[in-house]
Amino acid sequence: MHIRKVMVLLLAVLGLIFATWIAAGQQARRVDDLALRNAGRTGEEWLTYGLTPGETRYSPLKQIDTTNVTRLGLAWSYDVGTGGGNQEATPLFWNGTLYGITNWSIVFAVDARTGKERWRWDPEVNQVTVRPKICCGIVNRGLAIYQGKIIAPVIDGRLEALDAETGKPIWEARVAYPQDNYTITMAPRMAKGKVIIGVSGAEFPVRGFFAAYDAHTGQLAWRFYTIPGDPSKPFENPALKKAAETWSGEWWKLGGGGTVWDGMAYDPEADLIYLGTGNGGPWPEQLRQSKGKDNLFVCSILAVKPDNGELKWYYQPVPGDSWDYDSVQGFILADLTINGRQRKVLMQANKDGFYYVLDRLTGAFISAQPFALVTWAKGIDPETGRPIINPEAHYDQNKESIILAPGPGGAHNWSPMSFNPATGLVYIPTSTNSTSTFALDTNFTYKPGERNLGIIRGNRGTGLGVEPPPQPAPTHPSPPAVGPVPPEGQRGMLVAWDPVTQKERWRTPGGGGIGGGTVTSAGNLVFQVIPDGRFVAYNANKGEKLLEIQSGLRGGMGPPITYMLDGQQYVSFLGGLGTLPPPLPNAPPPPGTVPNGPTVPPKLLTFVLDGKAPLPH
């Protein structure tokens, strides 16, 4: 009897130890700084926008490979809402749950095994008042996860922390106000317990900035303005005092632009956050009263300290931008051997058509070559890293209209690229022959609180069709082109680029700089989602197409992710436009939308080997 009591007591103690061990294991799964730093090492979960802090979108998973990828089929689908714009978000996967964000910043959590909704949270944006302030589509590009919280950007300028298990709000911060012409469309990133977020809206008279918030409380930690303010007042930091020397006239009364609406990466070892900034406002430097000036920090890449936002270095791909060549496209951080030397690099396939490789510790220029058709510049000076701009491209100074490449949509825009260390290649969704007609609006008058582009572009007036424009001057002959010659009749391509040699390795039709995106894996695969609804897989080193599935969600596609659950590898992505709202008066539809297109509700689709679920119709 005594022995039995001892055994019962021993079993109870062992049970308590086991339960404690299980609880500790569950607690250890919470996403902290170390988990984010190691994100992507196993590939089992997708914890941050680019999978790794360096945004490589490379997964070490290889259950799905070149030998069996043809067996991929739909496991389940989930209706994310009514739509009203593109699905541009990268979902996150953690602890058996997929988290996503859809139009009007509605956040949802879905059981990754079944597709059943776990919770849904609607920030209830005032759509009537906010919609006229949205430049380029009712979109959000993603979420962040940290210490049991989902960090959600709201298009009206709020930042929300939601309980990852329940979806209940924990804190709310006000980043910006739509009354001031700001919106938020980018995915937040985490660095040392801080949420880093930037704002959109450079087509309006705004002063761009990005900011850091304490992930536990939502309190503002610091803010970095990308444009210097009124020089009669103290500058917020020494970097802005220096930047003011690159402006002239009364630029601050026009806002200046330089918004931060997409690209970001983080190097924990270097303790640096990297961000890209947008175009100047108005577009022509002539109207910014800054002819021949660099206008820092528009169209720039900035490296700042996460503790206080201190600027450590900058590089400006497009000084004095007059062409809407935002430098906000996604970054990739990698270690490459270049000319026999190991380099820690930052890479970007820029909107301007050049692929840049920089030293990410110092900002030193390493190389840049065109990966698409380029006519605005002859190339990049290898000594200074500055573009050799064709004189004819200065339409605002020449008072002539001219067709230039790339156009404002860019050779590469927000559609995520990926880097495979095994092949050494970067996979870039590319608009190989993006062009547009540029001409100065000689009747330009600044309008407070409204779009102020100051150009006549193509047949769309001021760029957004807001008012009938004056007729442009006779078109100047386009400058000679550099870069790969685009295939006739084919504008959208997936380009495999060697960043060491700065040469194209292979290309295949489909996609473009806006919409969809890629992820690459140790299975020697590249998964691509194409804006027309196709889900495609290629051999990563050769570019051979191995799989093509029409998802049935034409238009408005988001990039794919891959992860592991219960011993099976999955691929998930968002797609579909759904029901579009009526256009604003005299305004064209947002970029990427399909007039009179399908009204299939936007969905989250999840694929697995031998999946049997029916595809949307």
- Strand order within the widest beta sheet: 1-35-36-37-38
CATH architecture of the domain at 30-165 and 514-617: 8 Propeller
Number of helices: 5
> Strand-residue fraction?
25-35%
CATH class of the domain at 30-165 and 514-617: Mainly Beta
Class from secondary-structure proportions: mainly beta
Low-confidence stretches: 12-28, 459-469
Rg computed from alpha carbons, rounded to a whole number of angstroms: 24 Å
Mean pLDDT: 91
- Name the shape in a single word: globular
Named CATH topology of the domain at 30-165 and 514-617 = Methanol Dehydrogenase, Chain A
CATH superfamily of the domain at 30-165 and 514-617: Quinoprotein alcohol dehydrogenase-like superfamily
* End-to-end C-alpha gap: 69 Å
Describe this entry's structure for a reader.
With 617 residues, the protein is mostly beta strands. The chain has a domain of 240 residues: Quinoprotein alcohol dehydrogenase-like superfamily (Methanol Dehydrogenase, Chain A). It is built from five helices and 41 strands. A hairpin with a 4-residue loop joins strand 16 and strand 17. It is globular and about 60 Å long. The N and C termini lie far apart (69 Å).
